[in-house]
Amino acid sequence: MKLTAKRIKGLVERLIGPEAVPVVDMIKDDENVSEFLISKKLKQDIQVIRNILYRLHKHDLVSYKRVKDRKKGWYIGYWTFNKRHAKILYQDMNATELERYQQRLEEELAYLNNFYLCKNMCVRMNFERAASVNFTCPECGTVLDNQNNERTVEQLKMKIKEIQAVQG
Ligand SMILES: [Zn+2]
Question: How far is the CA of 144 from the centre of ligand 1 (A)?
Fold first, then answer.
């Protein structure tokens, strides 16, 4: 599996949040990038940048070394993106996602065309649960409609194929 820029973005967004993506973009193809340089280029306060970097570090996505600035007398962190570990985390994330989709597919297949939906979109439930509420929406009292879930099944199958393709 190749760790593309898109996959790195997806991983960072999921684990840290979208605010960390530009920070990772600045260091992922380089080594020992100064946190002050990141702060300057992204026009964000050094504390904000450091906070993001520490959160990345918690997941071992970055490593750093501290160097004392001789002129100013303070310490500057130089950061490096940990591609090898990012790849492992990405694969883990994918495996978890695959499992989740497979479980959903199993449930959808177990109740093929036997799901019930409130037309006000309050609830969606399988036959047994719908029967237990007398096919009436517990939120708004509307009678539940039987739902053809073949499209959901197809979509889940496609999603599973996509993830499996990434895993190779
Ligand atoms: Zn309802």
Answer: 8
